[in-house]
Amino acid sequence: MAIKKGTGLMLSLVLMIGLTLSGCGGNNNNTNNAAAPEATAKSTTAPAASPSETAAPTEKTNELEQVELSLYLPGGPDKDVASVEQEINAYLKDKINATIKINQLSWDKPADKVNLMIQSGEVFDMVYTWNFMTNAAKGAYAPLEDLLDKYAKETKAQINPAYLQAATVNGHLYAVPTEKELGQSVGFAFDKAIVDKYGFDVNSITKLEDIEPMLKVIKEKEPGMSPLFMNHTDSLNWFTAYPESEDLDGSNEIPTLLDYKTMKVFNEYDTPEILERLKLIRKWYEAGYINKNGATDKTELKDAVKSGKAWFVYGNMNPTSTNDWTRLAEKPMIIKTLLPVQVGTKSLQGSMLAISRTSKNPERAMMFINLIHTDPVLYNLLTFGIEGKHYKKLDANTVEFIPDSGYNSVSSWMIGNVLLNYLNKDEDPRRVQLYKDWNANSKTSPVIGFVFDSTKVQSQIGALINITKQYKNTLYSGEKDPEPILKEMNSKLKAAGLDAVINEIQTQMDAFLAAK
Question: Is residue 35 over pLDDT 50?
Answer without folding.
Answer: no
